Please model this.
Amino acid sequence: YRDSNKVRLLKTLRWEETDRIPNLETLFESNHVDAILGKQSGKSSWELAPSDQIELALRTGIDMLFVGGYGKFGQQYKVMDDGSSQYTDGSIKNRQIYNSWDFIGDFQKKLDLISYNVKSLTDETKKTSVGAAVALRSVFADTSLSMGLTDFMMNLYDDPKLIGMMMDLYLQFALKVIDIISKYSVDMVLID
Model:
């Protein structure tokens, strides 16, 4: 697949005919990035400089690139032998941990990173036919992954107000991200 083109993907979303099936990958782990680009970066596609992201898209025929740096609050990951990461658990298990969490500081750091990443990627993709997209997690996904699935299910019964408070926080975060991306020429927003 060559000739990356964001129009192809956008046409598909509108049920219009395209020249081929669009190619959309939300994330390449570091081992795949290194193999495709032919150099050791040790970074996932979301962590690459925009110029390297575009090179990755052009080599694989991806029609749209995703901006990284969102969410993952309280989520724990294990780095595997191949350099990829795998979700293992959440760390915001209960109200006591929630109350000690500096979410305002964490959110601001992430919002600053997202703003920088969105601006950088949209500036670079304007020079190409590759699109720029932002992926957001749903408030349900962020909350359940922040707690860990078992603790999330237990808290649905034991402390549903805690679940609601966390979902409200993640909704406020998502709305701030939407404010950020509305300032730039983002081609698509994906909420999973």
Notes: The chain has eight helices and five strands. The chain has a mean pLDDT of 87.
